[in-house]
Write a structure and sequence with these properties.
Layout (H helix, E strand, L loop, with lengths): L17 H11 L5 H9 L6 H5 L6 E6 L5 H8 L3 E8 L3 H13 L5 E5 L11 E7 L10 H9 L2 E12 L5 H14 L10 H8 L2 E11 L2 E10 L3
Parallel strand pairs: 1-2, 1-4, 2-3, 4-5
Antiparallel strand pairs: 5-7, 6-7
Helix pairs in contact: 1-2, 4-5, 6-8
């Protein structure tokens, strides 16, 4: 069931609160099936989009690796943070919703979405911003370093790499993420060990400029922001 396409899209900016983002996503994804629309609307209470926005430089080209339904790029386009955004994902169905949201936002000339079989097929760039949000815990542990490196190589000189994933710290927040992922994907995931991405970033000449643990509801998130040393 779809919502009416006449739902107005509220204005948002980089200082938007989770409640404001909920209203934005509900309207932006009104042309998508109800389950996805509801999930998109409640996700700002779980995923700290408001924190991510603080580290996105203005006016650049962005690549979202594992973009899903394209919510991060939709937000970046609506806040006019980026000049161009490309999302890629190994799952095709969510990309249809990403394209529908881009149409609703009038951002079809800004956003594009590509179905890929692996990160090797992702656009090469280089990009001013590369994001990888809640992706690596779905990647087999033996492949994570290579996937991270492939994404990092697409960051241009002076560009930023935004990494966010579920916390690996022991406790209820970690368990909450595991249960959540199992409910929606039937996968009992293994978190990325603490310190792993920092080590991989050094190998790719990325400098850590910000690290933060972010609690949200019953969940916990690890945010790492890196900058390309080259250039």
């Amino acid at each position: 069931m779809l919502a009416t396409a006449s739902v107005p899209i509220p204005l948002v900016d980089a200082a938007a609160t989770p409640a404001q983002l909920r209203r934005f996503f509900s309207a932006a994804y009104c042309d998508t099936p109800a389950p996805l629309r509801w999930l998109s609307a409640i996700r700002p209470y779980v995923c700290p989009y408001d924190k991510l926005l603080q580290f996105i430089p203005d006016g650049g080209d962005a690549l979202d690796v594992g973009c899903g339904a394209g919510s991060l790029l939709a937000l970046l386009a609506a806040t006019k943070k980026i000049r161009r955004g490309v999302g890629c994902d190994v799952a095709e169905p969510p990309l249809a919703s990403a394209r529908a949201a881009a149409r609703r936002l009038g951002a079809e000339d800004v956003l594009s979405f590509q179905h890929v079989r692996s990160i090797a097929q992702a656009p090469e760039g280089p990009f001013d911003i590369v994001a990888m949000v809640d992706v690596l815990h779905h990647v087999a542990p033996r492949e994570r370093a290579d996937v991270f490196a492939a994404a990092a190589r697409r960051v241009g000189p002076g560009g930023v790499f935004i990494y966010k994933d579920m916390t690996a710290r022991p406790g209820g927040r970690r368990l909450a993420h595991n249960i959540d992922d199992y409910v929606f994907t039937r996968e009992w995931v293994q978190q990325v060990p603490e310190g792993a991405v920092e080590a991989w970033a050094i190998d790719q000449r990325l400098a850590l400029v910000h690290g933060e643990f972010i609690p949200r509801l019953i969940y916990g998130h690890e945010l790492r922001v890196f900058r390309r040393l080259d250039g």
